[in-house]
Amino acid sequence: MPPMAHPRLLWAGVALLSAALGLAQFGGSAAFERNPNGKALIETYEIIQEQYLEPIDHERADELLQGGISGIVGALDDPFTSYSPPRNAHIREEDVRGEFFGIGVQIAPANPDGTGAKIVNVFRGGPAFGAGLKTGDVIVEVDGEDVTELPLFDIVAKIRGPKGTQVSIGVRRKGASAVLRFEIVRRKIEIVSVSKAMLPGNVGYVAIETFLNVKVIEQLRKAVTDLKQQGATRLVLDLRDNGGGLLDQGCQVADAFLKRGVIVYTRDRRSTRAYCEASPRTIWDDEMVVLVNGSSASASEIVAGALQDKERAEVVGEQTFGKGVGQNVFTLANGGELTLVTFEWLTPKKRSIHEQGVTPDVEVRDNRFPTPLAFEGLGAEPGAQVTLSTGGKTYTTTADEEGKFSFSEELPPRALSDVQGEAKVDVENDAILKKALELLGAR
User: Which residues participate in catalysis according to the annotation?
Assistant: First the structure.
């Protein structure tokens, strides 16, 4: 089967471009035959198959070929172009749909290299909550398999599964010496990406965590409707730490607050065109402010850039990340997916923000997450205690057998609501939110 463009979506900043690239366009294997390096790639695989000391079985052959795909993609040296093996592609499809069968926890890497998994939130009413899993638990086993060194994505794949099936989760819990094991039946889990709260002065607060599923606009409409019913007359739209997602969701969110004009332009190899325009119908006509930080990227920047260019809302916070390119997702013959940068997007005033970001109207440093203390060195006696005192606090670590030592402060976990759709905010200590409320006249 030829590679086809993803039928519905494109990634983080992603667009529905009408691109269906068949093998005929590339000349099939002829493209390899015309290039000496292409021929060498095929020859390498065939020589390994025929002459490597150990026979290459089907599974190992698949690994070699997928390694070749990853190598070609990696050679582009483009941080936004990637290859997803079939299993990963399936997980991503579930995320885009906004639902899957799992246990109802939010997890993050347990180790600095992105491996392992620790639970950062257990959603109230979900299977994990009922079984007794807790925030802070470190997942060490899934169905009896040690997962402490697996990439987070692989652990997610093992925890999810068919509806009504059982999964065994083994965790280490602070204060417990033994591994605690929980038998949990998978249930349907909806990904809720929008949360809300009522703030002082009749200010409604809506945070969008990601644009990475097709239910974002539906959830936003419901959140704003609920806030209106509670008496909200002004609105804060929080896009901080939102790394983007689907361009069509970004367009729909911007459209929800705009009445006319182009929302975003796309520029590919051949042309620049208006991708989407605002319709007259909005969900919020009153005053609003948009919050951003250095982790607001892609579709978040599309929304912030459009509302800023149209002078619909003041943007408050930090310079955004600066991801101004979009990808097309191609489903390959093996079920994997190629996510390929194919276009750049521009704001309504045709500003390119790639590697620049959106500059806020009012700049405020995001003070919610303090920078952890870290230090390292060498030359200590093997096994010696190394102590650093600063700011009235003392930190201690132990040198290894080569006299090397390192320390990284573990910060308290971020306060998250265990009720999906309910936001947890700190009006007094969140500097960006505090400034937004001042601009809205609520303080």
Answer: 298, 309, 323
